[in-house]
Amino acid sequence: MIRENLEKIREAALKQINDAGIGEKDALDALNDVRVAFLGKKGELTAVLKSMKEVAAEERPKVGAMVNETRDVIENALKEAKERMEAAAMNERLKKEKIDVTLPSKRQEMGHRHPNTIALEELERIFIGMGYEVVEGPEVERDYYNFEALNIPEGHPAKDEQDTFYISGDILLRTQTSSTQVHEMEKGRLPIKMISPGRVFRSDAVDATHSPSFHQVEGLLIDEKVSFSDLKGTLAEFAKELFGADTKVRFRPHHFPFTEPSAEMDVSCFKCGGKGCRFCKGEGWIEILGCGMVHPHVLEMSGIDPLRYRGFAFGIGLERIALLKYEIDDMRLLYENDIRFLKQF
Ligand code: DAH
């Protein structure tokens, strides 16, 4: 009885293993179903094992061996079928994923240093050569650092002029790198000789000369005997290094709240040498920065004794330098990051 039963089980199992994969079902899933149906806890072969207690004691070893043999046969068949199917699937995949080694390779696209970066590295090289340290300050600032401590109190017109992105009443995106002057002065380490490059933000509409986000390079020197002639000498030297040894500079009186006296510095047009051309709009001069002697009140607010210390400061528009130096006529080109443009510098 049991022998016949086992034979039927074996035949049925082998047939189902053979047929696995013929139907809709994934072949490996079908195999698994066969395993469960015959060898699983509620499987047919397991049922036979459970019925062993009805077999006479002396018959049990023989019947047990038969059950084991059947299980081995089914297990082997399952294993072989599984290996066969996996090999077939792998072959199929290899065929599909064949690589055509004769195709041209994808080129690794290299980027290019941005004109702003090139100009900044040049500026840093010049000032580091004069003993300046490069420091950075936060782009998100408190009103105090951006305005108050720079002599721009509540209600000062400069606060309206510089259309500011406010994050909250007191926190804003800095409109000028001059805020880093305050951070440096507050550290209480004197003398100070630093430049501080970075991004600034103003609520301006985009056009050929404006952007809501651009870059400045701040400069600050504070020491015991600093005069306006030190400022002039330093910035004249800087201009010659940047635009060529023949470059002349001129200082026009100006107003900044945090410097007194204040000036704007022009360089002689490096295109026409000062005669006047299209590049300098016939002026012969090109404005490149704002500067002045640090206001005593500004020193005082940051805890520096204005009777003992004096300083000068300057602020350079980095884009302006890049546009001039590389003769780019539209600021927007600097922000599009078109590699065909960037590669020209
Ligand atoms: N912060 C000024 C601006 O954004 C530029 C400037 C002018 C900076 C004079 C200075 C300075 O340090 O002394 O327009």
Topology:
Layout: H1 2-19, H2 27-39, H3 44-50, H4 60-96, H5 115-129, E1 133-134, E2 140-142, H6 143-146, H7 157-161, E3 171-173, H8 179-186, E4 192-201, E5 213-223, H9 228-243, E6 249-256, E7 259-268, E8 285-294, H10 296-301, E9 310-317, H11 318-325, H12 333-336, H13 339-342
Parallel strand pairs: 1-4
Antiparallel strand pairs: 2-3, 4-5, 5-9, 6-7, 7-8, 8-9
The structure holds 3,4-dihydroxyphenylalanine.
How would you portray this structure in words?
By secondary structure, this protein is of the alpha+beta class. The protein has two domains: 2-96, no CATH class; 115-342, 2-Layer Sandwich (BirA Bifunctional Protein, domain 2), CATH 3.30.930.10. Helices cover 42% and strands 19% of the residues. It contains 13 helices and nine strands. The chain has helices spanning 2-19, 27-39, 44-50, 60-96, 115-129, 143-146, 157-161, 179-186, 228-243, 296-301, 318-325, 333-336, 339-342; strands at 133-134, 140-142, 171-173, 192-201, 213-223, 249-256, 259-268, 285-294, 310-317. A seven-stranded mixed beta sheet has the order 1-4-5-9-8-7-6, with helices on both faces. Strands 2-3 form a two-stranded antiparallel sheet. Helix 1 (2-19) packs antiparallel against helix 2, helix 1 (2-19) runs parallel beside helix 4 (60-96) and helix 2 runs antiparallel to helix 4. The radius of gyration is 41 Å and the shape is elongated. The model has no long low-confidence stretch (mean pLDDT 93).
User: In sequence order, what are the helices and strands, one letter per element?
Assistant: HHHHHEEHHEHEEHEEEHEHHH
Strand content: 15-25%
Number of strands: 9
Mean pLDDT across residues: 93
DSSP helix fraction: 40-55%
Distance between the termini: 93 Å
